[in-house]
């Protein structure tokens, strides 16, 4: 998958994604669990372009670690530093029926909501759910964990379908979905407590 070493990746519950409308767009929400780069094994199963929301410096590192040109998979990079944080590009991709991949547990300067996470108030971004609701696209949660020296497991614990109702506070509605994601992530970390690599204080970092 990356570098000089080839890892075996066990992809669980991919049938949840296979059961979705294949012509519709899909948001994949990843996290800093295990090695999030191994989710490329899951992305490689999708016969459609994948768009990664990624900072330029991270993109450069990824290009060194992963051969973006191998196989038939089309992978595009969308920078959150461009106009409107790349929202236009992500919406266009989803409307074309493509996949948009976004990190769910670090906000990188995007709008946030307060959620309960691991016993305290944490600050998670809500843009993935807002974009998905606007594009009428589901959100698939992908989480990975290392299972041995040469193997990883990628889980798809749930598919969330955010819907926003008119006349209600948009941010509060989105908080509901972010909290569901936070609970799923928390449950995963209870099973894999040493495999969370967020490396920033998301419990106090509001900016």
Structural account:
The protein is α/β, with parallel strands linked by helices and 207 residues long. It has six helices and nine strands. It is 28% helix and 26% strand. The strands form two sheets. Strands 1-9-8-2-5-3-4 form a seven-stranded mixed beta sheet. α3 links the parallel β3 (50-53) and β4. It is globular. The model has no long low-confidence stretch (mean pLDDT 86).
Task: Sum up the structure in keywords.
single chain, alpha/beta, 7-stranded mixed β-sheet, two-stranded antiparallel ribbon, 26% strand, globular
How would you summarize the topology of this molecule?
Elements lengths: L7 E4 L3 H4 L7 E5 L9 H4 L6 E4 L2 H10 L9 E4 L8 H9 L3 E5 L8 E6 L2 E6 L1 H9 L3 E10 L2 E10 L9 H22 L16
Parallel strand pairs: 1-9, 2-5, 2-8, 3-4, 3-5
Antiparallel strand pairs: 6-7, 8-9
Main beta-sheet strand count, sense and barrel state: 7 strands, mixed
So how many helices? 6
Strand elements, count: 9
pLDDT averaged over residues:
86
What's the quaternary structure here? single chain
What is Rg?
Answer: 16 Å
Strand coverage percent: 25-35%
Low-confidence stretches: none
- State the separation between the terminal residues, measured CA to CA: 33 Å
Q: How are the strands of the biggest sheet laid out side by side?
A: 1-9-8-2-5-3-4
Q: What is the structural class?
A: alpha/beta
Helix content, binned percent: 25-40%
Element order: H for helix, E for strand: EHEHEHEHEEEHEEH
